[in-house]
């Protein structure tokens, strides 16, 4: 069994410095890794990123993160990423990483993702340049996620997780106004997850949404936005379908 | 003789229309010091309801202060919750 801790939308700033650390310090008792589903800051400033970095530095479990839209607001996403990586987090954008949990190898593929909406009410790559660009960005994120998941499959991971900020399905948005669904996620992410396969999809972004959902292909989806889960993080226990036994492999590879 | 008052023909000052004031408030919250943080502002009858979850008591005070300033003259009911930072007491078993 793999124990996955996850939270998104912690929106840290100088006034919340240290607030989550006491809970994060208990992670070794209940989890094998911590997933951060984006919107770790409020405006994506380096100062806010340093607060997050101090919150996760030297934790007893590996930390895997994607950025969210707030983390892009100050146009310093590369610096935010560097600050988090310096604190030990593996920050993914169209990339994957492998974490060892006992004998099992847990693959995490991540992207921020983007909006566009869901089947029957989605934006198309048509019209004004900015509209086409909007959809292209969403498609690019989804393509990156699919490729990263496929790479993990080729690597023979025992469990594969899709980590995004935007939602792949509308079910976990229940509670949000219907009118803003196209800004909360995209079916392209779910299509990528179903095409490549995954054991669990984790996202944030929708503060007023719901925790539980599922893709058309049957992959469980969890919205771990902190306002939704009402805790510092939630823990999910995933069975290992193919025990790794004594197989050896790289401790951690990001690519 | 037409005695019907037509607001649209003569225009209505935007500052007097609650709906537009709320929309501008949400723009200000999004662009402001706090980011939008998922705060919802809804017109309920003659009052405005502010709901959502924010990371700290300071954030809550700042959001409500901004709302009251932007919507001066309207009743504002704040129901903002502060994020809970404790560890979970159980895990979900996924089969």
UniProtKB/TrEMBL annotation, chain A:
InterPro entries, per database record: Calcineurin-like_PHP, Metallo-depent_PP-like, Metallophosphoesterase_sf, UCP008292
Domain Calcineurin-like phosphoesterase: 2-208
One GO location term (cellular component): membrane
Keyword vocabulary terms for this entry: Hydrolase, Metal-binding
Keyword Metal-binding: yes
GO terms (BP aspect): lipid A biosynthetic process
GO MF term set: metal ion binding; UDP-2,3-diacylglucosamine hydrolase activity
Gene3D superfamilies per the UniProt record, alphabetical: 3.60.21.10
Record protein name field: Icc-related predicted phosphoesterase
Species this chain originates from: Streptomyces calvus
TrEMBL record, chain B:
InterPro entries per UniProt: BON_dom (IPR007055)
Top-level taxon of origin: Bacteria
Pfam families, alphabetized: BON
Boundaries of every BON domain copy: 23-80
The protein's name in its UniProt record: Osmotically-inducible protein OsmY
Organism, scientific name: Streptomyces calvus
